[in-house]
Design brief:
Blueprint (H helix, E strand, L loop, with lengths): L1 H23 L6 H23 L6 H22 L6 H26 L1
Helix pairs in contact: 1-2, 1-4, 2-3, 3-4
Amino acid sequence: MLIYALALFAVAAVIGIVMASKHFGGANPPLPMALLHGLFAASGLVILILNLLQGGDVSLPSLVLFVVAALGGFVLFSFHLRQKRLPSPVVIIHAVVAVIAFLVLGFSLVPVIY
Protein backbone atom coordinates (compact mmCIF):
# COMPACT_ATOMS: atom_id res chain seq x y z
CA MET A 1 0.00 0.00 0.00
CA LEU A 2 2.84 2.40 0.81
CA ILE A 3 4.37 1.74 -2.60
CA TYR A 4 1.24 3.32 -4.10
CA ALA A 5 1.70 6.37 -1.89
CA LEU A 6 5.32 6.63 -3.01
CA ALA A 7 4.23 6.38 -6.66
CA LEU A 8 1.60 9.10 -6.20
CA PHE A 9 4.17 11.36 -4.55
CA ALA A 10 6.58 10.66 -7.42
CA VAL A 11 3.99 11.80 -9.98
CA ALA A 12 3.27 14.88 -7.84
CA ALA A 13 7.02 15.57 -7.74
CA VAL A 14 7.35 15.46 -11.53
CA ILE A 15 4.44 17.88 -11.88
CA GLY A 16 6.01 20.01 -9.13
CA ILE A 17 9.30 20.21 -11.03
CA VAL A 18 7.46 21.45 -14.11
CA MET A 19 5.58 23.99 -11.99
CA ALA A 20 8.79 25.19 -10.32
CA SER A 21 10.45 25.65 -13.70
CA LYS A 22 7.52 27.77 -14.84
CA HIS A 23 7.64 29.78 -11.60
CA PHE A 24 11.38 30.45 -11.80
CA GLY A 25 10.92 31.21 -15.50
CA GLY A 26 8.86 34.21 -14.45
CA ALA A 27 5.25 33.01 -14.63
CA ASN A 28 2.86 31.35 -12.23
CA PRO A 29 2.12 27.76 -13.21
CA PRO A 30 -1.36 27.15 -14.62
CA LEU A 31 -4.02 26.55 -11.99
CA PRO A 32 -5.08 23.15 -13.47
CA MET A 33 -1.48 21.96 -13.12
CA ALA A 34 -1.43 23.08 -9.48
CA LEU A 35 -4.71 21.25 -8.87
CA LEU A 36 -3.35 18.07 -10.45
CA HIS A 37 -0.16 18.33 -8.39
CA GLY A 38 -2.23 18.75 -5.23
CA LEU A 39 -4.54 15.88 -6.15
CA PHE A 40 -1.67 13.40 -6.52
CA ALA A 41 0.07 14.61 -3.37
CA ALA A 42 -3.14 14.60 -1.32
CA SER A 43 -3.96 11.09 -2.52
CA GLY A 44 -0.55 9.89 -1.37
CA LEU A 45 -1.05 11.60 1.97
CA VAL A 46 -4.47 9.97 2.41
CA ILE A 47 -2.92 6.55 1.78
CA LEU A 48 -0.25 7.24 4.41
CA ILE A 49 -2.87 8.33 6.94
CA LEU A 50 -5.16 5.36 6.21
CA ASN A 51 -2.22 3.01 6.56
CA LEU A 52 -1.35 4.56 9.91
CA LEU A 53 -4.97 4.32 11.13
CA GLN A 54 -5.12 0.66 10.12
CA GLY A 55 -2.06 -0.10 12.21
CA GLY A 56 0.25 -0.40 9.22
CA ASP A 57 3.95 0.21 9.27
CA VAL A 58 4.17 3.82 8.15
CA SER A 59 7.15 6.10 8.54
CA LEU A 60 5.85 8.70 10.98
CA PRO A 61 8.63 11.21 10.18
CA SER A 62 7.72 11.11 6.49
CA LEU A 63 4.04 11.57 7.33
CA VAL A 64 4.80 14.62 9.48
CA LEU A 65 7.04 16.09 6.78
CA PHE A 66 4.41 15.51 4.09
CA VAL A 67 1.84 17.29 6.27
CA VAL A 68 4.24 20.24 6.63
CA ALA A 69 4.77 20.24 2.85
CA ALA A 70 0.99 20.13 2.36
CA LEU A 71 0.59 23.20 4.57
CA GLY A 72 3.12 24.99 2.38
CA GLY A 73 1.15 23.82 -0.64
CA PHE A 74 -2.03 25.34 0.80
CA VAL A 75 -0.20 28.64 1.27
CA LEU A 76 1.00 28.53 -2.35
CA PHE A 77 -2.48 27.60 -3.56
CA SER A 78 -3.92 30.63 -1.75
CA PHE A 79 -1.59 32.82 -3.84
CA HIS A 80 -2.86 31.06 -6.96
CA LEU A 81 -6.46 31.77 -6.03
CA ARG A 82 -5.67 35.42 -5.40
CA GLN A 83 -3.77 35.54 -8.72
CA LYS A 84 -0.61 36.78 -7.03
CA ARG A 85 2.95 35.77 -7.77
CA LEU A 86 4.04 32.77 -5.72
CA PRO A 87 6.69 33.66 -3.13
CA SER A 88 9.93 31.93 -4.15
CA PRO A 89 11.05 31.17 -0.56
CA VAL A 90 7.80 29.29 0.08
CA VAL A 91 8.16 27.41 -3.23
CA ILE A 92 11.69 26.36 -2.25
CA ILE A 93 10.79 25.36 1.32
CA HIS A 94 7.74 23.42 0.09
CA ALA A 95 9.88 21.54 -2.42
CA VAL A 96 12.75 20.79 -0.02
CA VAL A 97 10.43 19.49 2.70
CA ALA A 98 8.54 17.34 0.18
CA VAL A 99 11.76 15.87 -1.24
CA ILE A 100 13.05 15.04 2.23
CA ALA A 101 9.70 13.43 3.11
CA PHE A 102 9.81 11.42 -0.13
CA LEU A 103 13.33 10.20 0.59
CA VAL A 104 12.45 9.27 4.18
CA LEU A 105 9.43 7.32 2.96
CA GLY A 106 11.41 5.67 0.19
CA PHE A 107 14.22 4.59 2.49
CA SER A 108 11.72 3.30 5.06
CA LEU A 109 10.31 1.01 2.37
CA VAL A 110 13.65 -0.54 1.40
CA PRO A 111 13.29 -3.42 3.88
CA VAL A 112 9.73 -4.02 2.62
CA ILE A 113 10.82 -4.18 -1.01
CA TYR A 114 13.75 -6.52 -0.40
